[in-house]
């Protein structure tokens, strides 16, 4: 009996020593993860546009952010977003992929995930014929936001592929999307390249029509899929290095918010109206012509890289340099 007790005690001592060593090793591994000093709140930049809708879950507290406060700031111009990132007034940003790639040398960023895949269309007024892309020769195409925007680069790449030289054969005119809607409705503009939901606003109450799905035109020009990695979640690289846990929480929150908005569309639309200032019916009409689905960079970096490479080939002036592997948080 004594021998049995001695043997049992010996086994327990060995097991105890094993668990102590294992616990120390796990603690050392955790200590090696840079995550200091801890932060309880971050700022996320988001453009005033289509991506307001999938952010409704975060901005209105409908999804769990796992103990970190996510303050949302809505930017109206690329310069505003760039200035806030460069001056450390924001750690995260929803950005068009092409904008982030061009900004990357100035402000080192890492892609966490893509959540917008479809949004852009070419529309024409009632008196603007469009039997094919050659119809645009000698015409003006009003393009949302400004030179270098995603829809601008997309249009330029497609025009080049169709044998039309931007600015020489087709004049590109830039304005805020709200202004382009007014110009189309008044008949002062005949062709426009716009994102939803502004396409749906343009279609209201007149004979304006969609003449090209630019995602489909891109697929025809490149042989790829009828979708684009339009925009996604980016984090400043220094913040990612110092705060990987908080970064994971924000990425998970955007994934949850994107899913929540799709599953609670009417509520998400109502919550988004204070920023988009559009009728709920218009936002709902626009939704089927958009595609929102969060994919982490580990699952879509190849598609994003292929998109940027092809864009660089078709319109090299639109991308200064292709970002390196550090651009993708795999």
Which helices and strands, and how do they pair?
Elements: H1 2-31, E1 41-47, H2 56-59, E2 69-75, H3 78-86, E3 92-96, H4 97-103, E4 109-118, E5 120-124, E6 140-144, H5 150-161, E7 171-175, H6 177-186, E8 191-195, H7 198-203, E9 209-213, H8 214-222, E10 231-236, H9 237-242, H10 244-263, H11 265-276, H12 280-286, E11 291-296, H13 297-314
Parallel strand pairs: 1-2, 1-3, 6-7, 6-8
Antiparallel strand pairs: 3-10, 4-10, 4-11, 5-8, 5-9
Helix pairs in contact: 5-8, 10-11
Q: How many domains is the backbone divided into?
A: 3
Per CATH, the architecture of the largest domain is 3-Layer(aba) Sandwich
CATH fold assignment of the largest domain: D-Maltodextrin-Binding Protein, domain 2
What is the CA-CA span between the terminal residues?
A: 58 Å
Assembly classification:
single chain
Please describe what this structure looks like.
This protein is an alpha/beta fold and 330 residues long. The chain has 13 helices and eleven strands. The protein has three domains: 1-32; 41-118 and 230-327, Periplasmic binding protein-like II (D-Maltodextrin-Binding Protein, domain 2); 120-222, D-Maltodextrin-Binding Protein, domain 2. It has helices at residues 2-31, 56-59, 78-86, 97-103, 150-161, 177-186, 198-203, 214-222, 237-242, 244-263, 265-276, 280-286, 297-314; strands at 41-47, 69-75, 92-96, 109-118, 120-124, 140-144, 171-175, 191-195, 209-213, 231-236, 291-296. Helix 5 (150-161) crosses helix 8 (214-222) and helix 10 packs across helix 11 (265-276). The N and C termini lie far apart (58 Å).
